[in-house]
């Protein structure tokens, strides 16, 4: 199994973003997904900036993927999506059906294009759906975050994988980070500050890991990240390597957070290479200044907010 650094889901200042990816370039992850997935108003880093950053990471030996937005709501956003999908310097991760349509047309016009990635927000919950999407030109599938690992393995089993345009479809799962659960046309961060979406004053820049939402009993429940709702807790599958291998998973997606992320990547790599046992890695993860507790309920067919179980 390999490691993938997922797209940065928050709006960090440009200097912080550049420092973060300089660390990623030196880290052990093989693949990096770049791009603005959540909100087109976060325009401090534009298309040409992402491409330039992708080239730097490619020189550092990383495989680079450019991601499209998960919820497209305007013609301007569609134009940006088409531009991103029509380039072929880097593979593209489809965030929604509009990206799929452009990517499928591009693949039909030029069969030599590199396969695209089916992002975690494409609704693929059975083998027939994966086969249908693979035929459009996909080569890689990121499973929806709430799927249990045995269900992932049943949809794309390692012994009989779905075939894409360049061979078996590779499976990736969301292995670390706040779970991206939903998107809305409304911006909840702006609403929290009693601002309109168009006059949001870019308040989401103040929340490096999203804005924590608690229940009436004071328990952390969700995190608001502009138009995106996330879990307050962090998915962590570091103790599930056996189940991940049985499910045929080829890569683990680690979603960036504000503090301690470089060590998170190192610990996952150490467990995959068997230079550290999962129990020790989990114990250290629990000591890091992460923005929430560690959970893995969805992967085990339990409630998603159930805390990670210690390895047996």
TrEMBL record:
Q: Which residues bind [4Fe-4S] cluster?
A: 39, 187, 200, 204
Superkingdom of origin organism: Bacteria
Give the keywords, sorted: 4Fe-4S, Hydrolase, Iron, Iron-sulfur, Metal-binding, Protease, Ubiquinone biosynthesis
Query: What biological process terms from GO does the record include?
Result: proteolysis; ubiquinone biosynthetic process
UniProt entry tagged with the keyword Secreted: no
Record's keyword annotation contains DNA-binding: no
> Which pathway is this protein engaged in?
Cofactor biosynthesis; ubiquinone biosynthesis
Write out the similarity annotation: Belongs to the peptidase U32 family. UbiV subfamily.
Name of the protein this chain belongs to: Ubiquinone biosynthesis protein UbiV
Species source reads Inhella inkyongensis
The organism's taxonomy opens as: Bacteria, Pseudomonadati, Pseudomonadota, Betaproteobacteria, Burkholderiales
């Amino acid at each position: 199994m390999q490691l993938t650094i997922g797209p940065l889901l928050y709006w960090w200042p440009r200097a912080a973003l550049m420092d973060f990816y300089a660390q990623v370039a030196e880290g052990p992850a093989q693949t990096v997904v770049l791009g603005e997935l959540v909100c087109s108003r976060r325009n401090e880093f534009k298309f040409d900036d992402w491409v330039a950053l992708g080239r730097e990471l490619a020189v550092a030996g990383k495989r680079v993927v450019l991601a499209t937005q998960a919820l497209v709501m305007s013609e301007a956003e569609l134009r940006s999506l088409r531009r991103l999908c029509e380039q072929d310097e880097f593979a593209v991760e489809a965030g929604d059906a509009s990206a799929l349509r452009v990517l499928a047309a591009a693949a039909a016009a030029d069969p030599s294009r590199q396969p695209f990635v089916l992002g975690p927000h494409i609704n693929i919950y059975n083998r027939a759906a994966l086969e249908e999407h693979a035929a459009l030109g996909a080569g890689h599938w990121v499973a929806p975050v709430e799927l249990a690992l045995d269900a992932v393995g049943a949809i794309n089993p390692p012994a009989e994988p779905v075939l894409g345009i360049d061979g078996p479809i590779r499976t990736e799962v969301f292995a670390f980070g706040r779970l991206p659960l939903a998107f809305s046309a409304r911006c909840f961060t702006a609403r929290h500050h009693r601002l309109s979406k168009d006059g949001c004053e870019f308040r989401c820049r103040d929340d490096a890991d999203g804005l924590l939402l608690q229940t009436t009993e004071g328990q952390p429940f969700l995190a608001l990240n502009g138009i995106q709702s996330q879990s307050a807790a962090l998915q962590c599958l570091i103790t599930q390597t056996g189940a991940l291998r049985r499910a045929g998973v080829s890569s683990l997606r680690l979603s960036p957070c504000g503090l301690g992320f470089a060590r998170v990547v190192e610990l996952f790599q150490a467990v995959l290479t068997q230079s550290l046992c999962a129990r020790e890695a989990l114990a250290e993860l629990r000591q890091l200044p992460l923005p929430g507790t560690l959970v893995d309920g969805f992967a085990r067919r339990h409630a998603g907010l159930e805390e990670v179980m210690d390895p047996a």
